[in-house]
Here is the input.
Amino acid sequence: MWDFLTSQFGFSIALAAFIMLGVILPSVAYCIYFERKISAWIQDRKGPNRVGPLGLLQPVADGAKFFLKEDFIPGHVDKPLFLAAPAIIFIVSLVGFAAIPWGGQWQIGDKLLEVQVARPDIGLLYIIGVASMAVYGVVVGGWASNNKFAFFGAIRATAQMISYEIPMGLCILVVVLTMGTLRLETITSLQAGGEYWIGFIPQWNVFLHPLAFVVLFITALAEANRMPFDLAEAEQELVGGYHVEYSALKFGMFFLAEYAHMITGSAFIAVLFLGGWHFPYLPWTQPEATGFFAVMCKMAVIGGKIVAMLFVMMWIRWTIPRFRFDQLMRLAWLRLIPMMLAMFVLAVLLLYFRLHRSALAPAGNLLILGATLWIAARSTAPITGRQLNMPEIRNEPTQTGAMPAEAV
Amino acid sequence: MGCVALETVLAVAACVVQASPAPHQGTNVELVVGLVMFLLAGFLLAFVGLSVGRIARPNMPHPEKASTYECGEPAIGDSWVQFDLRFYTVALVFIVFDVEVALLWPWAVVYRDMGGAAFWPFLVFFLLIAIPFLYEWKSGYLDWVRASTGQRRESVLDSPEDAEAST
Here is the structure.
């Protein structure tokens, strides 16, 4: 048994079980708690504080309620697809975790184990492919509900997700060019090793290509259907969007999947841009450290990075209003994609002259950001954009509250 | 979505078929095991939750519950209709674009080692992406809201009669 557990195969199975039961399910449940607490904090309220100390048992109560409420299926839906949709979206949001490197290598006895469930050659491609299948859950759910609100939500989600997938792919291509590999564990260890730039900056990709990091974060928000991109479930317009006909546990699965999606996205960004489990100056999080304590430290560090990014996502949700749909599409197609195409060319040119790890990379990023903002400030969209040549108002300004003379 | 997902499925399938890992390389069997475990967990949570939970939760069917929810209004017809959301252009542009970007993935991995030999073909390929993109942009295919005939912006805003008529 011990031999099996300390083989990479058995260890992967144990790790997968541990991550599923010990990391994902509690953290997804507590994400909801923290979302409510953070929203309360931002809106100067108290938030959940009745169930348990500080409301800490609230997720348990929520879970029990999801489980015990009546779970009816409306008569007009396409039943097989209606049942399949929450399962699809929930499963797909879990599968991406398989390729995340959680803690480098672990030395047990004379064996060196990778703290990672699977190490495919195409780890990066695998995560993108799996993550982008989440749209099927939304579309199938929205279509099967046979409800106009749900249908609009599903259509919006499709257009949004396919649009934001292209800038996401280009961001990741920039990383692939800089790192020269698709293996997530190699990308992490390449960022973890080496000298510090200017004496103190770790070699994380975020310092090389900050713009790509920001755009990847934006597209991750869009892919997870988060504010300010949650048009698929906009409460004020579509009452609930694609999950309006769902109740009880099936609704709960949509809800949990959104948070699982956020956690996968954050972990992915942490690995690509923030050095994964590496933390500068902490000897236990260097690639050479392989003891038990080092592995725990590395998992804590990547966990901390994920939590920090989740916090920013929640902060954004309760701060920024929702886009209008044409603005959303314009941001993707006319701003982010040209910007990321330019970033891609920049990365290619830098690599051509072997300058891809020099200060020219962040300088080029700033240049491209500046150029994009300059162009964006000078362009107007037809019909729905800012109107520079609005007709002048010909009536005299009236006193507040007073009726215009001709109206009386 | 479609293309990258399909590509991943194919790549995973290729890993399974190949299954001859070098010692330092990832054993692709683990990917399959991880995949299957996470899939199983998802299925268990979904279907056990839905089936076992049925014992615990109430079941009180009512015709109102079975009807379409449209904020209290009786629904007119069902929603399985054809609906143009300017979607097909975006979808078409996306498919072309996504295939092009997907073709850049293997190139991006080997470019570092091949250097100049890979640069010039890339430039040609990139122009094949960039020029149609600019063309689509200039022709207005990327605008979500498009002017239909008679709805041109100048005609509404520049002539006072039209502005008058619209108010």
Remarks:
- Chain A touches chain B through 97 residues (CB under 8 Å).
- Chain A has a mean pLDDT of 82.
